Amino acid sequence: MSKTALFFATGYEEIEALTVVDILRRAGEKIEMVSVTQERKVTSSHGVEVTMDKVLSEVNFDEVDVIVLPGGMPGTGNLEACTALMEQVDAFVKAGKIVAAVCAAPSILGHRGHLKGRKACSFPSMESHLEGAKVCQEPAVRDGNIITGRGMGAAIPFALTILEALQGRDAAKQMAKTIVFQL
Predict the structure, then answer these.
(1) What are the counts of helices (DSSP H) followed by strands (DSSP E) for the chain?
(2) Is 103 a catalytic residue?
């Protein structure tokens, strides 16, 4: 079984973040909610406070297989401003480990040069930040070890794409059926 870490910064988009947590936990995957601050409680862009499993300094990245970056404003900017997290994102991409980002967060991958020559998607107003990418309008796109999603309305396809990368197409199809989602 793999281990996923989903990173929360003040101003995250709650549906994009918690949908991934929910679907992966339903599928039996180990996923931890991690605050990029030293506070265990993080407030979303819409004032929803969620208690994290860990703070960034407690994460052993040698035990993590997948990094997930939810969107939201100012959450995306706060994630990108976290140097320790960005170092890990770069290391994961280089190592071929899965890095997934949704809504505004794929812009982080574009800014860091990780989307060059890859298919990717993001929230429409952020597409200009997908530097070097072949921009797609699909709800979620996987190109190698990079998974991107368009926004809140694509949270389920995004989460199912992560699940498919971890457990295969049949597991994603079964989960879609279980949650009454048409793939």
Answers:
(1) 6, 11
(2) yes
